[in-house]
């Protein structure tokens, strides 16, 4: 496992992008409760941030997974998590299934504009009555000749109000359970598609999160990604990409939050000396930094193994669980050690605490990760 000069070069490019194209605007975007994805995404495409691992013929970069690791680590260091979350959705959550399983025609029509940042995309799995339990989704596509007619609703959809197309998991038969689901590309200009509402959230304000409504939405059957009826299985593979990338960015984000807290404690004085002079504070920070470093190394090992073709699904589950727990501890500490300033909206710490809380919930809650891990260990069998 070794980064090359090319990795380091790419790391600098992404860090500069975060510094110039995200950080100066995040306060404005947070207030507006949305970042302008159609303006930002072409710039992401310019630095090769979309389709890093995809074939060049479909607008990808033809690189390996370790470059995705670098991208996500650096995005994780941004001053707000909203824009990086929107970028991550397009880079690693809404498009992998299309690249892996989609037809040539579908990739040319939908993947290329997304990779060029002209199209904004979402992935829609969750529904008002089904999040952790994906088998509980009800949105139904019924076949009518060469078309699907889709009815239902989707909930919590990142980039949902700006998306040009959506990778949507729906039921295409009445089999129930994990059977009979398909992934379908739904262009958002199709009649019958609407954004029901934007959801006001605790954090990630600059990322739009929408409830979507589908009423007799007709899309061609040829918009099905991969095999009809294999949507659940395909989505589970896509979820793994999400878990990996969340861990990469959030572990680095937590490390940066601790570093920024050290900077603050060096200059903030109480009882006649800088706060950093308190051993209690230093030790607690050092301990969490150690945990971040261990997770970052674990992530890197996982990325290089994945790039070498290993199955890392268990590692990804471990990492997603760990990063969800760790960011909660880090968020609590950084707010506490900033005192009143930690609780003030004008300071970054409050935003960090709000933004990072989603990590333990989205893309599979901690308890869902534990459910998977107990199954790996056979503990779910009596
Ligand atoms: C900001 C944001 C962005 C999102 N973006 C997207 C998106 O782009 N696309 C998309 O499809 N979804 C998205 N989601 C949805 C997200 O994936 C779900 O919120 C998540 O999977 C949890 O589902 P739920 O909210 O329905 O919680 P529920 O399934 O109702 O679970 C509630 C809680 O119960 C516990 N729990 C659940 N199952 C178990 C179990 N088996 N054992 C023990 N405890 C359990 C967990 O603590 C869980 O947090 C987003 C959510 C948020 C908040």
Describe the structure.
It is a single chain. The protein folds into 3 domains: 5-115, Acyl-CoA dehydrogenase/oxidase, N-terminal domain (Butyryl-Coa Dehydrogenase, subunit A, domain 1); 121-229, Beta Barrel (Butyryl-CoA Dehydrogenase, subunit A, domain 2); 233-376, Butyryl-CoA Dehydrogenase, subunit A, domain 3 (Up-down Bundle), CATH 1.20.140.10. With 382 residues, the protein is α+β, with helices and mostly antiparallel strands. Helix content is 49%, strand content 15%. The model has no long low-confidence stretch (mean pLDDT 97). It contains 12 helices and 10 strands. It is globular. The strands form 3 sheets. The chain has a 4-stranded mixed beta sheet. Strands 2-3-7-6 form a 4-stranded antiparallel beta sheet, covered by helices on one side. The chain has a two-stranded antiparallel sheet with strand order 9-10. Flavin-adenine dinucleotide is lined by residues 89, 122-126, 131-133, 156-158, 201, 204, 209, 358, 361-365, 367-368, 371.
Task: Please render the helix and strand layout as text.
Layout (H helix, E strand, L loop, with lengths): L4 H18 L3 H7 L4 H10 L18 H11 L6 H12 L2 H6 L2 H12 L5 E4 L15 E5 L2 E12 L6 E7 L9 E7 L5 E6 L10 E12 L3 E2 L5 H37 L1 E2 L2 E2 L4 H29 L5 H25 L10 H9 L9 H11 L6
Parallel strand pairs: 1-4
Antiparallel strand pairs: 2-3, 3-7, 4-5, 5-8, 6-7, 9-10
Helix pairs in contact: 1-4, 4-8, 4-9, 5-8, 8-9, 8-10, 9-10, 10-11, 10-12
This protein binds flavin-adenine dinucleotide (FAD).
């Amino acid at each position: 496992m070794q980064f090359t000069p090319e990795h380091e070069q790419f790391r600098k490019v992404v860090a500069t992008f975060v510094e110039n194209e995200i950080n100066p605007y995040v306060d404005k975007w947070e207030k507006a409760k949305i970042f302008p994805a159609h303006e930002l995404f072409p710039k992401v495409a310019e630095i090769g941030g979309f389709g890093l691992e995809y074939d060049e013929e479909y607008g990808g970069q033809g690189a390996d997974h370790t470059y995705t690791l670098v991208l996500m680590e650096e995005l994780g260091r941004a001053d707000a998590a909203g824009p990086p979350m929107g970028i991550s959705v397009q880079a690693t959550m809404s498009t992998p299934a299309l690249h892996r399983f989609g037809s040539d025609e579908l990739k040319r029509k939908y993947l290329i504009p997304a990779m060029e940042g002209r199209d904004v995309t979402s992935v829609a799995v969750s529904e008002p009555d089904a999040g952790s339990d994906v088998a509980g989704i009800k949105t139904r596509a019924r076949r009518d000749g060469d078309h699907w007619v889709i009815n239902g609703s989707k909930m919590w959809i990142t980039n949902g109000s700006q998306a040009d197309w959506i990778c949507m998991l729906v039921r295409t038969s009445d089999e129930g359970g994990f059977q009979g689901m398909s992934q379908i590309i739904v262009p958002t200009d199709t009649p019958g598609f609407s954004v029901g509402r934007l959801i006001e959230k605790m954090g990630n304000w600059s990322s739009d999160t929408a409830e979507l409504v589908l009423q007799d939405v007709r899309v061609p059957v040829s918009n099905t990604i991969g095999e009809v009826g294999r949507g659940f299985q395909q989505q589970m593979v896509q979820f793994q990409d999400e878990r990996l990338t969340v861990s990469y960015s959030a572990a680095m984000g937590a490390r940066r939050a601790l570093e920024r807290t050290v900077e603050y404690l060096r200059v903030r004085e109480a009882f006649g000396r800088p706060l950093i002079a308190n051993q209690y504070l230093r030790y607690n920070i050092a301990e969490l930094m150690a945990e971040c470093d261990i997770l970052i190394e674990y992530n890197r090992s996982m990325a290089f193994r994945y790039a070498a073709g290993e199955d890392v699904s268990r590692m990804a589950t471990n990492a997603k669980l760990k990063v969800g727990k760790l960011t909660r501890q880090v968020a609590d500490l950084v707010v506490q050690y900033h005192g009143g300033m930690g609780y003030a909206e004008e300071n970054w710490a409050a935003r960090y605490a709000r933004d990072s809380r989603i990590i333990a919930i989205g893309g599979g809650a901690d308890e869902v990760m534990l459910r998977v891990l107990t199954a790996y260990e056979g503990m779910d069998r009596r």
